[in-house]
């Protein structure tokens, strides 16, 4: 499993795609946080990163599909998929290796954004006047959100050998998982179960964790959601095998 994980991680890091993808993510998030008038923290006037954490999920809808789209799609396109599944390694080990390699790249993309926290903490008045608990909770929420989107991306990549199609499928599923249930709950006929329908979506649980409160129910939701899509991946890959 470690060999597949290392191969997957270093094959991505050895290409320019990784650096371009992560670079664009950091550039766009930095512009949104510091320069664009409608979202700039400098114009907002408060030492907090709430605006940043509300924008990153939408950036994840493009970053994570770009990271995961090659996981299985490239293997099938290059003809190495058959070689991989005939190795003395379990199917779950292959899936988890690719999943954790992609999740590691998501973590690499998030780590440089800690500079934003330090900068805003230094700019606060008095210095250090920032709710660190809420920031830590929001970063945990972002990581769990990234883990869920990564599971969707691995599943999407297992469906096709075309990376562009895998990207589109992943982006669409991520958008629906994050926003679809909120919009569905607002349909007139569902007003009686509005809260229950909205609670099925990721947004409700991500918002809850972002407040700095770690609820066991939210943690169980993210773990279950991620594992569910990994099970779907296993079914797809197992069928192709």
UniProtKB/TrEMBL annotation:
Its main location: membrane. One of its GO terms (molecular function) is ABC-type transporter activity. Pfam families: ABC2_membrane_2. It is a multi-pass membrane protein. InterPro entries: ABC-2_transporter_component (IPR051449), Motility-assoc_ABC_perm_GldF (IPR019860). GO terms for cellular component: plasma membrane. Keywords: Cell membrane, Membrane, Transmembrane, Transmembrane helix. The chain crosses the membrane at residues 12-37, 49-68, 89-116, 136-157, 164-181, 219-237. It is found in: Cell membrane. This is Gliding motility-associated ABC transporter permease subunit GldF. It comes from Pedobacter endophyticus. The gene is gldF.
